[in-house]
Design a protein that fits this description.
The complex is a heterodimer of chains A (359) and B (63). By secondary structure, chain A is mainly α. Chain A has ten helices and eight strands. In chain A, strands 4-3-8 form a three-stranded antiparallel sheet, with no helix packed on it. Chain A has a three-stranded antiparallel sheet with strand order 5-6-7, with no helix packed on it. Chain B is an all-alpha fold and 63 residues long. The chains are: A mainly alpha (359), B mainly alpha (63).
Chain lengths: 359, 63
Amino acid sequence: MNRILSFCLLVALSIGLSTVDVRGEDNSQEEDLHMDLKTGAHDENGAKAYIQHHLQDSYDYTIWHAMGWEFPLPVILFDDGLHIFSSSRFHHGESVASCDGKYYKIYHGKIYETDEAGTITMGEHGHPSNPKPLDFSITKNVFTIMLMGAFLILVFSRMAKSYKENPIPKKGGKFLEPLVLFVRDEIAIPNIGEKHYKKYMSYLLTVFFFIWFINLVGLTPLGINVTGNIAVTFALALMTYLITQFTANKHYWGHIFWMPGVPVPMRIPLALIELLGTVIKPFSLMIRLYANISAGHVVIMSLLALLYVFTNWMARGAFLGLTLFLSVIELLVAFLQAYIFTMLTALYFGGAVAEHDDH
Amino acid sequence: MEIPAIVGAGLIVIGAGLGIGKIGSSAMEAIARQPEAANKVQTAMIIAAALIEGIGFAALFAV
């Protein structure tokens, strides 16, 4: 009970802090926000820009804008040789960064090579025609993923060590053991089967805890949106796709290219559909996670922005309550999406190793 | 007259909502009839709901 209470407090605090963060924008910004939402104008200012900014990856890490708690991250560019410099040279995208005689500027969240004055020339369709260097920067998302990876390794390797000495879980193990067993008994075994589930457990557990923890971190006011980035979910779905294809048995390929039990002329179009299906399955995994998390972030941020549109305290109270309620729903969604991703992954693995004795 | 894309998205969301509602109601009936199968029904329900939800989100993001 105590734990639940403290968790609720943490959520309330998170929302409080993120509210402060919005308020931390300077006054002109807030004025713009009023104007923007009242007139419905789609200019660069106001809530829309704020939400857009939150959803995007960035080259520096802002913990609390109002307090000035922000730190730069390394920019790594490959453009006729490696260029490594601190993102503080961009001054939040306002100035041109120079490195080894080359000049770079951030335009709409992407780095372009420019001249000394930082001119961005527009090509057709309104996209810049400046050359783009290969970007391997440690951005906010990459940094968060590294941090979370290190955290997972630390927690789970310590947990594994403690189980070698004593099978009774200690500290964090008490919380994580039921979840590990949940992944094994409710996700892996029913979907993959007793015989083959063991070799997939490591991937399923990693993906489950990685997505869940990253989703939870995304709900804190740190302004991280990792699983709401389609590149991240693409990588996760790609792993599922590759593991499914490379561990599949001959029955799986038989069902794709030469479906047993259907008339021969039908087998060729079926092979095409099945082949497409192998790609569509991980594609839906990618879209589902990305869309759910982004949509959740957009809704919460929009409600927070509404707090600044209304000057009536009753309306503000109502929206604060609604934001709190939705944040709690998002806690559920964070878990549910991790569960669904792992579950569907297990389902696809199960399809790849299923043994058919009955034809 | 041109119908804005958001209307189409709204229609799809109505469809997705009806679909998930149907899944939920059927699952509840199934659990009421056979409480011992609750876990299996729940799993199948969540998978089916997730698949429909994916379509809803795809529609929203296509706008």
